Amino acid sequence: MNNYRLIADLHTHTVYSHGKSSPRDIVKSAVDAGLMTIAISEHAGGNLFYGLSDDDFLKLYNEIEELREIYKINILMGVELNMLGKGKTDIPKLKDKLDVRIMGYHKGVLVKNRFTLSALFESFFHVKNTALNTKEYCNVIMKNKIDIISHPSLYISVDIEKLALFCAENNILLEINNHHPCDPDMLKKAAMAGANFIIGSDAHIASDVGRFDSALNAVLKAGVEDRIVNLRIEG
Question: Sorting pLDDT into bands at 50, 70 and 90, what band is 234?
C-alpha cells in the first residue's frame, strides 16, 4: 500500500484575519509536520469581513521575514484574492513581494456589478449562474497573475471542464481544499480537461497545518493522485 506525504501547504490563515494562530505557530506546526514549504495566504482587502489592509500586509510580511531567519523551512508570503467582477481582484500594494497568489470567490465582497450581485444571490439562495461565473473566472485569469484557484465551486457554481481547460492552458493549479468538501467526480472531469491540482489545508489554526485527510480521500476516489503537485507517493 502506498503512503502519501504532503510536502507543501500554501493555504493557511492567522490571527491577522480570521485564523486563531500566530504566523510563528503556523510555521512551527509546518516544521513539526515535516513540510518543506509553508505559505501564509491571508485574504486581501476586498473582503469586508476579514480582508487585510495594506498596512497589515506589510506587518505580516515583516513578521515572515523575521521567521525566515529563525526556521529552516521555506516560508512564503501569499495572498487569497477576491473576485470583484469585470476581471478585477483586490491585489495589495506589496504585490511585488508576494510569492503565491490564490484567487477565488468569497462572501463579503461589495456588490458593484452584475457578477458580484449574481454571485451574492447564488451564494445565499443557490440560484445558479454557471455561465457568468465561469466567464468571470476566465476574465480574472486573463487580466491578473494567478497561481492557484481556491476551492472551485464553493459558494458559486462553475463549468469545471471549461475552467480546468483554461487553467491548464495558463499553468494555473486548481486547489483541493481540505477544509471544504470536494466532489471526486468534479476532480475527474477537471483532470480529463488537463488540469493539475494542489492540496491546501486552508488551516485557520496551527494544528490543521499540513492536514490533507479529507482532500486525499477525494483524490483517491477520483484516481488523480498523479496530478497533485505537492503530494509525494511513497511505496
Answer: confident
Instruction: Pull the grid cell for residue 79.
Output: 495572498
What Cα–Cα distance (Å) separates residue 206 from each residue in 11, 14, 63, 210, 226?
Answer: 12, 8, 16, 9, 28
- Beta carbons of 211 and 30 less than 8 angstroms apart: no
Average pLDDT, the chain: 97
- What is the DSSP-derived secondary structure letter of residue 163? H
Report d(CA 59, CA 41) in Å as an integer.
14
Say whether 109 sits in a helix, a strand or coil: strand
Cβ contacts of 71 within 8 Å, gap of 6 or more: 27, 28, 31
Is this model's pTM higher than 0.85 or not? yes
Got the DSSP string for 30-88?
HHHTT-SEEEEEEEPTTBTTTPPPHHHHHHHHHHHHHHHHH-SSEEEEEEEEEEEETTE
Cα separation of 114 and 111, whole Å?
8
User: Is residue 47 exposed (0-12), middle (13-18) or buried (19+ Cβ within 10 Å)?
Assistant: buried
Render pLDDT for 153-203 as a digit per residue (tens, 0 to 9): 999 999 999 999 999 999 999 999 999 999 999 999 999 999 999 999 999
Rounded-to-integer distance, Cα 145 and Cα 107, Å: 22
Strands (DSSP E) found in the chain: 3-6, 8-9, 37-43, 74-85, 88-89, 100-104, 148-149, 173-177, 197-200, 231-234
Q: pLDDT tens-digit profile of 139-149? A: 999 999 999 99
Q: Report the distance separating Cα 54 and Cα 209, nearest Å.
A: 25
